[in-house]
Write a structure and sequence with these properties.
Elements (H helix, E strand, L loop, with lengths): L2 H15 L10 H17 L4 H8 L8
Helix pairs in contact: 1-2
Amino acid sequence: MTKQEIIKQLKIYNLWGGGDEIITQPNPTELGLLIDQAVKELEKEKFTIEEISEMCKLPEPYKP
C-alpha cells in the first residue's frame, strides 16, 4: 500500500470516528494493520524522539 493509500484510509476511518454516519465501522483487524503500515512509514522518516513526542501531544484541555 502506498503512503497516499494509507493516508486516504486513515482519513476515512477518522471520519467514522468523528461520528460520520455514512462511513461504516471499520474492521478492527484491518484498522490495526493499517496503523502498523503507517507506523512503518513513519519509522522510515527517522524522526527524533523529541519530534515524535511533539507530534503525539494531545491538544489542551484534555486531561485523562
